[in-house]
Amino acid sequence: MVTSYRKRLIRLAGLLSLVALVAACGENKPSTNGADTSLSAVKTPQSTATFAASPSPTDVPLPYAFPKKWNSAPDGADLPQSPATVGSFAFSPSSPRTGYFCIVSPNATDDSATVPPAVGATTDGGQTWNGITSSAGRYKSICQVYLDQTNAKDVFVAAGNTLNSGSAPNPLFRSQDGGATWAHINQPTITGNGSFIAGLAVVQSRILAMIAPLAQAGPPAFSLYASDDGGQTWKPITISVNGQPLQFGEQMWVSGAVVYVEAGAGCTSACGGMRAPIDHEAVGKQLGTMPRTGPHSSGAPPVSLYFKSYDGGRTWHQLPTPVTNLGNISVQRSADGSTTYIVGTAGNVPNEPANIVFAYYSGDGGATWRRLPTLQGVENGFPDANSLGAFGNYVLPDGSVISTADHLNGTQYGGDAGAFLLNPADASPAWRPLIRTLNGQTVQTIPTNTGVRVWGLQLIPQQSGGFLGYFDLP
């Protein structure tokens, strides 16, 4: 699970506005020193109204209903104690009933590397949550949780104050005993610039970190680093074609021991500038990978390629895709670990109407692909056919797909038309309304005994955190 750069900007902008507001009003609470003065607060049930309330209606009312709604996380994990909120969460891929969240507060006063973050945990799938950090832990201004893919007790938290980090990176903390004790570890740095971690994973004991600079005009250029000594030293990872280094995109996905990344000579949504398109066939030939499995998209320039590594990023193989401009992808390991599901969307597909976005699905880790139904005619055509995946796509551990859509005349969340569900395994797959909104959410799905539980963090305006909630499928 990776928080997108757009959502990260929303958090940072909200935090900056809040800092200015607090300063203007003189509302400061130094007596708490930013400490978790009542970590037991995560054990106190809170009102669910804030999270579960439906968003305000659009100017053009939605002509259909949604069967699911967000439920506040039980046992008070939705709200530690205002103004503190959940900054990030993650569930363990190897032990889905184990999860962690870190706590942020606008009153945080100690974002240093010498003080660990305040963290809560669950071992029963989110039914109960407990504060696990010692009394030395502090609420932070910003935090992000990452977990070892195979060890549920190996926890990383990047935490600090991104806005005021200057030329120093935000501190990175690691706990190898489920959060009982923490140590500050080194992280990749950018000379003369502060940086933040956009993604982190542990693969075969190797730590991989995707980082980006803070002080840069426009969206950041991302860089991938690896550490083989627990974070003491880091080496950059590069992917080049014909001597031309490719630009990494923001996302990094891990399925078991396989790492997936986005990279390309063209500009992605997180790219600092456009570069000349590259010859995709030359790329495939150069890397010795399979040719693409379908027609090339000619209506738009290639923006990125996808690569996967079986050895922690030491070598890379190009992932064949059905069109050259496939984007907005989601990668998910199946509940039984036997395969990897991938979904992505693309517009301007050759020989197809330009006003339709198509979804492509792989049930075998990207070896083969199939096209999914479009939004044409769904709910009498209310969701715009060119908006499939507008606010993200999500593939679930059971292979089903959630995608989002908008409606041009709506105003809520920029015309958010809701999230829709499709199961590619159905005899006649079709998009069905699922839940009112996933826009503004950080989402992770975990398998349960009866299906899938979708967890989400709903960001709060003017704050860097939000409320933790869930809904169940089926």
The global form is globular
Question: What fraction, in percent, of the residue positions are helical?
Answer: under 10%
Distance from first to last alpha carbon: 21 Å
What are the segments in which pLDDT stays under 50 over at least 5 consecutive residues? 5-55, 266-302
Main sheet summary: 4 strands, antiparallel
Helix run count: 3
- Strand order, biggest sheet? 1-30-29-28
Mean pLDDT: 77
Radius of gyration: 22 Å
How many DSSP E strands?
A: 30
Please provide a brief summary of the model.
7% of the residues lie in helices and 33% in strands. It has 474 residues and is mainly beta. Strand 2 (85-91) and strand 3 (99-104) form a beta hairpin.
Could you give the topology of this structure?
Layout: H1 5-25, H2 49-52, E1 71-72, E2 85-91, E3 99-104, E4 119-122, E5 130-131, E6 142-147, E7 155-160, E8 172-175, E9 183-185, E10 195-203, E11 206-213, E12 223-227, E13 235-237, E14 240-241, E15 244-245, E16 247-255, E17 258-264, H3 280-287, E18 305-309, E19 317-318, E20 327-333, E21 340-346, E22 358-362, E23 370-371, E24 393-395, E25 401-406, E26 416-422, E27 432-435, E28 441-447, E29 452-459, E30 466-473
